[in-house]
Every structure is written in C-alpha cells, then in structure tokens.
C-alpha cells in the first residue's frame, strides 16, 4: 500500500484506507476495527502523501519524516500519545532536528508518532522500498546540473539559431 491510499479524517481518530468513491464523498475503512464509513465531501480528508511538516527552511514531506524514524532502527522507541510534551519534542528533534518549533505543535507531533505506529505495526508501507526511492532521488539530484548551469542549458536549447546575414547588392533584383 502507498501513503496516498492512507487517509486522515478530520474529527475522526486513527487512520483509514481509501476504499472507493461514493456519490457525495468517499468510502474508507478503519485500520483499527476494519469498519467501513462514508465520509462526506464537506469533511476534511488528507492523504498521508500530501501531509508536510514545517521546518526552518522548506516543508518536509511526511514520507521523509517516516523514513527518518525508520532509519533510527528497531530499538528506537516511539512515544505514546499521552507522553509528556518534553518527551514528544525530544522525539521530534531526533527525527527532524530542523522542525519549526513555533509552527509544529505537540498535537502535531502526537499525530506523527501515532500515524507512524499504525503504519509500521500494520505493515502498510514497505519502508525498505521508500529508502531505495530516497536514495535514487538523491542520486538523480546530484547528476542533474543545478542553479545557473541548469538555466544556461535550458536557455541555450530554447534559443533558435538565426541564419547568417548576407548582404545583397543594391542593383540585384
């Protein structure tokens, strides 16, 4: 399963699997009790693939945060949702040191820890394939020219070549 098929529904606890499109919404299935539910179009639904975490620089995809948690190894403990705010912040500093402490709240960290636990415990995502994708993306980024070099390559390829100007004699017609 991919992160795009795993949903978070506003006002509902836990995570859901996308099942199908309905007339005025979608049908999802809970990972907790395997019960199906209709979710109206008026309800806010987020695919985990679309979730990002604020950092001091740019936003980081939840997928990358999950990879960072997975890289910590099997002995790394994920805090319980009822853990102290200090413990949750320490967890977040470990997996994403550059997270924005002003815009990422303790409630957000609880969700990240809980979501990772659900995804990991139910074997919903193959983290080894995510690691391979990440490695391939980094390698691809290193191989492509960056910055001005890349702009020059693009602008050079877009400029049409002009034919050489030739002078025609005045009495030639």
Describe the protein in words.
With 173 residues, the chain is of the alpha+beta class. Among the domains are: 3-48, SH3 type barrels; 52-121, Orthogonal Bundle (Arc Repressor Mutant, subunit A). Helices cover 38% and strands 17% of the residues. It has helices spanning 62-71, 85-95, 106-121, 127-143, 147-158; strands at 6-9, 16-22, 25-30, 36-40, 45-47, 52-53, 60-61. The strands form two sheets. A five-stranded antiparallel beta sheet has the order 4-3-2-1-5, with no helix packed on it. It has a two-stranded antiparallel sheet with strand order 6-7. Helix 1 (62-71) packs across helix 4 and helix 2 crosses helix 3. The radius of gyration is 25 Å and the shape is globular.
Question: How does the overall form come out from the CA principal axes?
Answer: globular
Measured between the Cα atoms of the first and last residue, the distance is 74 Å
Number of DSSP helices?
A: 5
Spatially, the strands of the biggest sheet line up as 4-3-2-1-5
Order of helix and strand elements from N to C terminus: EEEEEEEHHHHH
CATH topology of one domain: Arc Repressor Mutant, subunit A
**CATH level-1 class of one domain:** Mainly Alpha
> What portion of residues belong to β-strands?
15-25%
The main sheet comes to: 5 strands, antiparallel
Q: Runs with pLDDT <50, length 5+?
A: 152-157
The computed structural class is: alpha+beta
Features of the shown structure:
single chain, 173 residues, alpha+beta, SH3 type barrels, Arc Repressor Mutant, subunit A, five-stranded antiparallel β-sheet, two-stranded antiparallel ribbon, 7 strands, globular
